[in-house]
């Protein structure tokens, strides 16, 4: 396989640059400042934030009342003179010529002083990124390398073993996709004689990238259509399977889980396997696993002889796995040019390796995030692509940014409660939903506009009014919103691409992956672990264990002659868990709603009054 090497595209913007206009300086909270924040037992975090400016405080909902005068307008040192703004725009415009990608940071009001103060920290971040790309243990808690950048430039992998793993996997993906699309590999009992559908089972990083890319890039009539099970919601699962109907026989089921043990994904797999059994189909002939070698999923797929298995690498995190088999296999099966995605990502990576900040788009993004959110996530990132096909970009970025940056402790072990909140859907749709609040309401965000210059494929456009197309309206809405927000001191970044293509989508993914990496170094946190997720998973496990105990107690009482309905207090006492009575109530209500427990007396609205028993006595369980 030819290696996918990056193509360096020098930015043309440097010739146009001057120093930025001198704007009032916003204080930089240093990493040290954040690192030494004491731990307060109350857990309240508002007082952990660096002091806000008087202008900020004047806008706080805590200090305003319906009778008080409107808050004094926050100025933030935002430049309003159109000619000066134009110069700032031109001075700071980043262009990646070959990718046709522009980054406009002119509507973020960072100052020269801020830049000067950030420069050494950015240089440190660049150095850390270089080490990361060379194979340093950049995820120290898990003792792992962080290698998603090698996926699109395998020759950068720190050794030939890893390089070959990447190249061989890409070859295998392309060959498998070709064999499926060309019906060289067929489903055993489909009247269609070929695979027509993909059912992707996975969650988080094992779903969001493939979902985003499918929405962005799948052709109108893809060789295989894709649908997703990305939750353990039984009704959602049933819906997906019902939608497939008889086409289940020609469905390729791709089960994606890096760990191979995520409960939601396991449940999805078991549900799909049941549907296969009920339809008289052999799941193993239609199942594909993407997971780490020797995971539970990998072992099951190997032992059951599934159609194919593709590796997930230890050194690729779920939220940065779009360019691994996780993203590439589903994309290739939909007829998307995955090599172009890799080329786009590789070109963007190359551009982001420069240590000249203004030529480095990922660094510019990180810098803007730092400025806009005071380096402590004080403002949310609203992502607004003005293109329907990029609808899921904000959802994809939500995990990439929030799971990476949302951390309690920094790399020195100090509590910092970091993160940046990300949300957004698409423009101009959102203009009719929440832009009202963005323009006039609480000032707790900055916006990223994603602009796509090409409205339609050439030759398809038409004017719905003299001189005006639908695309002109979309353009006008974007530019109008950008201006209106800025006029009210709301800062924004604009990323512009020519078209939504595999190359530009690959570049966007790479741009944000690197921006997150750089920003994480600026705030001194580990972007590559997710210890917080474990707490919820552990708690869910404990609840399911409690449910089993409740069931067993109820079963025992329901097997008595006559049946002994129990109050919640009695159940809690017999479970030796009086402190869990609220959870026991919730468990009972959930089981009752699903006809698995019967309420003998009272109703769920009056918890103290209810007495519960099971409809059936399971004698076997009594003697387990
Ligand atoms: O791919 P896996 O191991 O099933 O994990 C799915 C997701 O769960 C998490 O580990 C935690 O939510 C994510 O980081 C990950 O993308």
From TrEMBL:
The record ties this protein, via Pfam families, to: PGI
Give start-end positions of Low complexity composition bias: 1-30, 58-67
Tell me if Mitochondrion is a UniProt keyword of this record. no
Q: Name one GO molecular function term.
A: monosaccharide binding
Q: What are the GO cellular component annotations? A: cytosol
Region spans: Disordered: 1-76
Keyword list, A-Z:
Gluconeogenesis, Glycolysis, Isomerase
- Look up the EC number in the record and give it: 5.3.1.9
Which SUPFAM superfamilies does the annotation name?
SIS domain (SSF53697)
Which pathway is recorded for this entry? Carbohydrate degradation; glycolysis; D-glyceraldehyde 3-phosphate and glycerone phosphate from D-glucose: step 2/4
Q: Which PANTHER family match?
A: GLUCOSE-6-PHOSPHATE ISOMERASE
- Name the record gives this protein: Glucose-6-phosphate isomerase
Q: Which organism is it from?
A: Ensete ventricosum (Abyssinian banana)
């Amino acid at each position: 396989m030819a290696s996918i090497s990056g193509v360096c595209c020098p930015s043309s913007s440097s010739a146009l640059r001057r120093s930025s206009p001198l704007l009032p300086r916003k204080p930089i909270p240093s990493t040290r400042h954040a690192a030494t924040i004491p731990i307060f037992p109350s857990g309240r975090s508002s007082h952990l934030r660096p002091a806000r400016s008087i202008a900020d405080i004047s806008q706080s909902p805590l200090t305003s009342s319906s009778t008080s005068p409107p808050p004094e307008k926050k100025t933030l040192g935002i430049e309003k003179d159109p000619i000066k703004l134009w110069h700032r725009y031109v001075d700071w415009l980043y262009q990646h010529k070959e990718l046709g990608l522009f980054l406009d940071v002119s509507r973020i009001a960072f100052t020269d002083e801020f830049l000067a103060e950030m420069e050494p920290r950015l240089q440190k971040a660049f150095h850390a990124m270089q080490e990361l790309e060379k194979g340093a243990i950049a995820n120290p808690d898990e003792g792992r390398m962080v290698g998603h950048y090698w996926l699109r430039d395998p020759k950068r992998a720190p050794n030939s073993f890893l390089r070959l793993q990447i190249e061989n996997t890409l070859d295998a993906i392309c060959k498998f996709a070709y064999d499926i699309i060309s019906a060289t590999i067929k489903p055993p009992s489909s009247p269609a004689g070929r695979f027509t559908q993909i059912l992707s089972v996975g969650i988080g990083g094992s779903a969001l990238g493939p979902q985003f890319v499918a929405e962005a890039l799948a052709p109108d009539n893809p060789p295989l259509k894709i649908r997703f099970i990305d939750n353990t919601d039984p009704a959602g699962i049933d819906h997906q399977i019902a939608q497939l109907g008889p086409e289940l026989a020609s469905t390729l089921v791709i089960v994606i889980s890096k760990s191979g043990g995520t409960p939601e994904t396991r449940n999805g797999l078991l549900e799909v396997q049941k549907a296969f059994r009920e339809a008289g189909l052999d799941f193993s002939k239609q199942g594909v696993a993407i997971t780490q070698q020797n995971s539970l999923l990998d072992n099951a797929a190997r032992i059951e002889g599934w159609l194919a298995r593709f590796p997930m690498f230890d050194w690729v995190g779920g939220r940065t796995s779009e360019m691994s088999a996780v993203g590439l296999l589903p994309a290739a099966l939909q007829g998307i040019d995955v090599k172009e995605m890799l080329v786009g990502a590789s070109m963007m990576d190359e551009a982001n390796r420069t240590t000249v900040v203004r030529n480095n788009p990922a660094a510019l993004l990180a810098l803007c995030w730092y400025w806009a959110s005071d380096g402590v996530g004080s403002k949310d990132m609203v992502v607004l692509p003005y293109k329907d096909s990029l609808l899921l970009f904000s959802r994809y970025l939500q995990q990439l940014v929030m799971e990476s940056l949302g951390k309690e402790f920094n790399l020195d072990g100090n509590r910092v409660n970091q993160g940046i909140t990300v949300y957004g859907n698409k423009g101009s749709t959102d203009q009719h939903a929440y832009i009202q609040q963005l323009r006039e309401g609480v000032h707790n965000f900055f916006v990223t506009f994603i602009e796509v210059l090409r409205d339609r494929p050439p030759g398809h456009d038409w004017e719905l009014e003299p001189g005006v197309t639908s695309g002109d309206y979309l353009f006008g809405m974007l530019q109008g919103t950008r201006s209106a927000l800025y006029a009210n001191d709301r800062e924004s970044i604009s990323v512009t691409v020519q078209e939504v293509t595999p190359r530009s989508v690959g570049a966007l993914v790479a741009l944000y992956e690197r921006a997150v990496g750089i920003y994480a170094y600026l705030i001194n946190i580990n972007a590559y672990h997710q210890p917080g997720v474990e707490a919820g998973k552990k708690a869910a496990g404990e609840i399911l264990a409690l449910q089993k105990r409740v069931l067993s107690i109820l079963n025992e009482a329901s097997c008595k002659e006559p049946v002994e309905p129990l109050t919640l207090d009695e159940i809690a006492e017999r479970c030796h868990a009086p402190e869990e009575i609220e959870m026991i109530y919730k468990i009972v209500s959930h089981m009752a709603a699903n006809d698995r427990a019967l309420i003998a007396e009272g109703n769920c609205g009056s918890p103290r009054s209810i007495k519960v028993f099971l409809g059936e006595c399971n004698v076997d369980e009594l003697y387990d």
